[in-house]
Every structure is written in structure tokens, then in C-alpha cells.
Design a protein that fits this description.
There is one protein chain. The chain is mainly β and 111 residues long. The chain has no helices and eleven strands.
Length: 111
């Protein structure tokens, strides 16, 4: 069974930054895509950013230019660097690797 362990969420003021991490218990090369999704209260879960096996990336429009997804292949860990955070970025962020999900980490952007 694949384990995904997330860390790095928290409370930050608007304009601030956070970095999320997700360590996966299997080689990154096992997965077609790895990435981050988020779910705000009362809303459906949505894609934030994904990175493919070969390093291609995709972002949802609302985070382009502010968020960066990356991967440390040796550590089988993906990251989400979030800059210029906005209150509307507040959500539970979930790590994903194909059909596998992490437990989620809360990100709250508030003054």
C-alpha cells in the first residue's frame, strides 16, 4: 500500500508564503502523475498542480505565477511552493499520486 505523508500547512497572512511537502513510499517513477489538489469548505476538490513522471507540469489558472510544483527524485518527495498567498487559497491541500491520496494538510490565509 502506498503511503503519502504531507507536511507544511499552517496559517499565513495574505501575501505570505508556505511550502508543502509530500513524501511517498514508492519510487516517483511508479506513478504517471503526482500532484496537489485542494478542497475549500463547501466546494469540490480541485486540481492545483501536477508533475508527470518525466517532469512536465500543469497548474490551474488561479495559481499560475504564484505556485511552483517540484520533485526530489532521490527522496520520492514532491513540493508545492506557494507565494503571494490569497485568502481564496484557503483549503485543505491533498497530495496525490495516481489513485493514492494523502491525509490532507490545512492551509489558511488570513490576516
Amino acid at each position: 500500500q502506498v503511503q503519502l505523508v504531507e507536511s507544511g500547512g499552517g496559517l499565513v497572512q495574505p501575501g505570505g508564503s508556505l511550502r508543502l511537502s509530500c513524501a511517498v513510499s514508492r519510487s516517483y517513477f511508479s506513478f504517471n502523475t503526482m500532484g496537489w489538489y485542494r478542497q475549500a469548505p463547501g466546494k469540490e476538490r480541485e486540481l492545483v498542480a501536477i508533475i508527470t513522471r518525466y517532469g512536465g507540469t500543469t497548474y490551474t489558472d488561479s495559481v499560475k505565477g504564484r505556485f511552483t510544483i517540484s520533485r526530489d527524485n532521490a527522496k520520492n518527495t514532491i513540493y508545492l511552493q506557494m507565494n503571494s498567498l490569497k485568502p481564496e487559497d484557503t483549503a485543505v491541500y491533498y497530495c496525490n499520486a495516481d489513485i493514492n491520496w494523502g491525509q490532507g494538510t490545512q492551509v489558511t490565509v488570513s490576516s
